[in-house]
Amino acid sequence: QKEVEQDPGPLSVPEGAIVSLNCTYSNSAFQYFMWYRQYSRKGPELLMYTYSSGNKEDGRFTAQVDKSSKYISLFIRDSQPSDSATYLCAMRKETSGSRLTFGEGTQLTVNP
Amino acid sequence: SQTIHQWPATLVQPVGSPLSLECTVEGTSNPNLYWYRQAAGRGLQLLFYSVGIGQISSEVPQNLSASRPQDRQFILSSKKLLLSDSGFYLCAWSNLYRGFSGNTIYFGEGSWLTVV
Fold it and tell me: N or C: which end of chain B has fewer CB within 10 A?
């Protein structure tokens, strides 16, 4: 069983929709949670970074962590065609230094 | 600010040929460096990571090797490529001393390798 599960999609939504992307994990030792955005044929770029449970908001993006359910989410409000990309969740344990465990990514298309 | 450069961006190599991908990081010192491979439907696979010059840890036994001849330079190599080595290779860095986000990873633009 993978430590991090992420629905690969593809997910297609109309412009302006609220998008919800999710990951579940099995190891309660994960403490730091990240979301990366990857455009086609490009390297992933860090989008959001959160520690432990709670919400973090940055513009149209909100990252949510529920450690009791081992579940993290990324919400995109007022989605734009430029948000079309693959979104990868990542997480790490307190003892793993900077080594991350990644989900496989969800491919998102926002249609104009 | 920190930047990471990776090259070549794209290459097509015949089976059995050697490989050399290079990565350099600017604007930081003593970074942790990583090589990842990304294959379709398989997510990001950590191949090698390095915490200092000459210090390489291998995550997956394979046809590849890595070297770190300088603090901010990381090289991925192979003596003889296999078809299964095709994929998208990503160099990345992190730095423990960058505050709250210090333990996350920043990626280069990647190198597309096709072995034919």
Answer: N
| Residue to substitute from B44, B88, B95, interface A, most A β-carbons within 10 A | B44
Q: Outline where DSSP puts E strands in chain B.
A: 3-7, 10-13, 19-26, 32-39, 43-52, 55-58, 65-70, 73-78, 87-94, 106-107, 111-115
Amino acid identity for residue A15 in this structure: E
Contacts of B44-48 spanning 24+ positions with Cβ under 8 A: B44/A44, B44/A88, B44/A102, B44/B90, B46/A99, B47/B76, B48/B76
- Is A40 at the interface with chain B, CB within 8 A? no
| Contact predicate A85/A94, CB 8 Å | no
